[in-house]
């Protein structure tokens, strides 16, 4: 199958064909468990990685669906539909569902399922899938608007604020766990990536509504997207020339630069001048040096511990693709740098990569890294 994918997309570069083969094999090996079903669900789902991740995780599942939809739309849909079996009555989606059926539902993860649903649908145009998912996606979006929004902008949070690990759990909801972005506290910030993910969500809901001939709802979602984009540019762009998280109490824009800072380019809401400023930051050898670490090299909190500096392919892809969409050559430099790192690490496709040495780190045989290797190769 991987050979057919490469031939269909005219991928003849030997390095890229090897990477596609490895990525395809990794994803197929992570259909979990081996019989294709969880004990508590009839749907096939893909684990982030069988070595250390006994279950399915929230935004990981959306990414996995995007990846496998290139060759198996039914498997992609099962990942999405299966995860939504655990949606709470208020619309919230859990963070993780373990093999045992136990779930973590005091926090969620970034809202990327509407975008993933749109991508999967475009592979085969099955309207029944949209009809099944649309009300569930709307309910989840309404939960974000009710529980995670203030003054029109979105933040990360978690329930049970009186518990000892409350702040840790809020960091987990962001997906950026121990990032220097949160060293001064996460609950005080409107998060730049979260707000851009919500723009993506609104745009996808508008598209889905249009496909379902719900024209009035399509316009409603588009209006929400435009309104949020305006607020992002008003409150999350620094006069110093960058996007970042913003203190929702003081209005101060964080000095921490990360791949999340490039998300406004991915969703297409940056002006040409703003995009040019971000392109210079991406090339700066003291900041990102075309490697897209999870925090700029010159940040005092940088090291290669989890989200404090390694290269993670999902956020690196969104940043690089945003730069590509605005026509900057640095995007191709980032792409080539990351694919070389992945190719040179022969042991496996890893959870993340040391942004200095290129060494693979974390879980070996990681699913979303595999997805975004293919996105870099097929959709850049």
Based on the model shown, name its key terms.
two-stranded antiparallel ribbon; 9% strand; 14 helices; globular; 380 residues
Assign the CATH architecture: Alpha/alpha barrel
Number of helices: 14
Mean pLDDT: 96
Please give the largest β-sheet. Answer: 3 strands, antiparallel
Helix content: 40-55%
Strand content: 5-15%
Side by side, the strands of the main sheet go 3-4-5
Overview of the structural elements:
It is a single chain. This protein is mainly alpha-helical and 380 residues long. It has helices at 2-8, 14-29, 58-68, 73-84, 113-124, 127-147, 166-174, 192-211, 215-235, 263-266, 272-283, 313-325, 330-344, 367-378, and strands spanning 31-32, 45-46, 55-57, 96-98, 103-104, 149-150, 153-154, 189-190, 237-238, 242-243, 246-247, 350-353, 360-364. It has a 3-stranded antiparallel sheet. The protein is globular, with a radius of gyration of 19 Å.
What can be said about this structure in brief?
The protein has 380 residues and is mainly alpha-helical. The protein contains 14 helices and 13 strands.
List the helices and strands and how they pair.
Elements: H1 2-8, H2 14-29, E1 31-32, E2 45-46, E3 55-57, H3 58-68, H4 73-84, E4 96-98, E5 103-104, H5 113-124, H6 127-147, E6 149-150, E7 153-154, H7 166-174, E8 189-190, H8 192-211, H9 215-235, E9 237-238, E10 242-243, E11 246-247, H10 263-266, H11 272-283, H12 313-325, H13 330-344, E12 350-353, E13 360-364, H14 367-378
Antiparallel strand pairs: 1-2, 3-4, 4-5, 6-7, 8-11, 9-10, 12-13
Helix pairs in contact: 2-13, 2-14, 3-4, 3-5, 3-14, 4-5, 5-6, 5-8, 6-8, 8-9, 12-13, 12-14
């Amino acid at each position: 199958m991987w050979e057919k994918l490469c031939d269909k997309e005219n991928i003849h570069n030997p390095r890229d064909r090897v990477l596609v083969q490895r990525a395809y094999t990794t994803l197929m090996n992570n259909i979990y468990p081996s019989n294709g079903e969880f004990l508590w669900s009839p749907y096939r789902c893909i684990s982030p990685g069988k070595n250390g991740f006994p279950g399915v995780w929230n935004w990981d599942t959306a990414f996995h669906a995007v990846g496998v939809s290139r060759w198996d739309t039914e498997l992609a849909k099962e990942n999405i539909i299966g995860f939504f079996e655990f949606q709470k009555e208020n619309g919230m989606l859990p963070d993780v569902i373990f093999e045992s059926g136990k779930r973590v539902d005091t926090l969620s993860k970034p809202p990327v399922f509407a975008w993933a649903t749109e991508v999967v649908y475009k592979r085969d145009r099955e309207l029944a899938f949209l009809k099944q998912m649309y009300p569930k996606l709307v309910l989840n979006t309404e939960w974000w608007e009710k529980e995670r929004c203030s003054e029109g902008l979105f933040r990360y949070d978690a329930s049970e604020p009186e518990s000892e690990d409350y702040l840790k759990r809020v960091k987990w909801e962001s997906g950026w766990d121990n990032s220097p972005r949160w060293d001064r506290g996460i609950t005080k910030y409107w998060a730049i990536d979260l707000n851009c993910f919500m723009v993506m969500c609104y745009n996808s809901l508008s598209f889905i509504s249009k496909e379902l001939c719900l024209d009035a709802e399509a316009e409603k979602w588009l209006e929400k997207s435009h309104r949020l984009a305006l607020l992002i540019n008003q409150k999350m762009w620094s006069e110093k020339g960058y996007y970042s998280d913003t203190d929702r109490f003081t209005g101060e824009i964080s000095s921490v630069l990360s791949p999340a800072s490039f998300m406004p380019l991915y969703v297409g809401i940056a002006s040409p001048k703003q995009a040019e400023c971000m392109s210079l930051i991406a090339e700066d050898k003291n900041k990102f040096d075309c490697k897209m670490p999870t925090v700029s090299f010159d940040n005092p909190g940088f090291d290669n511990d989890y989200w404090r500096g390694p290269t993670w392919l999902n956020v690196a892809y969104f940043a690089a693709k945003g730069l590509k969409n605005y026509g900057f050559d640095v995007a191709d430099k980032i792409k080539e740098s990351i694919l070389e790192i992945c190719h040179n690490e022969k042991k496996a496709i890893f959870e993340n990569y040391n942004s200095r040495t290129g060494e693979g780190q974390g879980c070996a045989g990681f699913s979303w890294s595999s997805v975004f290797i293919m996105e870099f190769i097929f959709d850049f």
